[in-house]
Write a structure and sequence with these properties.
Blueprint lengths: L18 E5 L6 E5 L5 E4 L2 H15 L8 H6 L20
Antiparallel strand pairs: 1-2, 2-3
Length: about 90
């Protein structure tokens, strides 16, 4: 499990410490869940699941970079309409 997670402005983001790790129902992936945030991730191995969880929790805490306009366009998103708002205000998550 990675412990070198950095947040915005290189502030350290605490990696998940209260986790559950289990084999998924299909038996071919491992599922890791941070019990404090509810963030869940998976991987082909236990180690991969934990590393993916570290990255997902860092994203939950705001780490990472915004996608470029080109990346958004490749995904079919108009960059001019890509503005942050809560999930409650989103037309996508209803």
């Amino acid at each position: 499990m990675s412990t070198d997670i950095n947040g915005p402005d290189d502030e350290d983001v605490t990696p998940p410490v209260n986790i559950s790790l289990s084999l998924g129902e299909s038996g071919d992936v491992w599922v890791a869940r941070d019990k404090d945030t509810g963030v869940t991730s998976q991987g082909q191995t236990r180690e991969a699941a934990l590393e993916n969880l570290d990255e997902a929790v860092a994203g939950y805490h705001g780490a990472g970079e915004s996608p470029s306009d080109e990346t958004l366009q490749e995904m079919g998103i108009n960059p001019e309409q890509n503005t942050p708002k809560s999930l409650d205000e989103s037309d996508v998550f209803q």
